[in-house]
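Late entry, evening session. Most of the bench is empty. Finally got around to the prediction I had been postponing all week. Sequence below, unchanged from the version circulated by S.P.
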Amino acid sequence: MKIFLVRHGMDEEGYRGGWSQRGLIEEGVTQSARLGDYLYHHSEQYEINTVISSDLPRAVQTAKEIEKRLYIKGLYLKDWREMNNGHLAGMPNKEAEVKYAGVYFNTLGMDTPFPGGESPRNFYNRICTSFRDLCRSIEEQQIKSNVLLVTHGGVINILYYLLGNQNWTNTSVFHSIGNTSVHTLEKGVNGWEFSSMNMMSHLG
């Protein structure tokens, strides 16, 4: 049983992310297509039977490029979204620095929400719950493995801490998680563990 975590393709710089409704730039679409081609040509290695994605546009666009090549229809879920940054979602950085000066992901208290959004602790708990539910669904064969999950850097980072039995806060060091990178989880005798990190062979 495997779960392949994929970060979405490259999106436009200069804007706050989170629950932004902005999509990929052209390079991000190309990255996603190249990953789809790579997974198709290495289908015996990956044996993907299920595609799940965050329902935010940048993740959806990434997953759609993969769907086209694997002929698997994706399931799009709110559970796998990046942290809810409320009123700042998709806002130009310059505007955010005026309207919400000093409000950044790593300056919030663990229980302090973004204006109109969620707190780091809410985010962490949401992702941990979503992950445990996914694992249970795979183990009980409600979802067919292997699973490709298209999500966001912040989500994948939390899972590194969760599965490494390390305490996570919004000031924790960020793991290397490139656009369209693949991070492989395998179910072994010790539970779910990472067996491959930040794979980007498809980008050359």
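Two things to note before I forget:
Helices lie at 26-41, 43-46, 57-70, 93-99, 120-139, 153-163.
The two ends are 27 Å apart (CA to CA).
Will write this up properly tomorrow.
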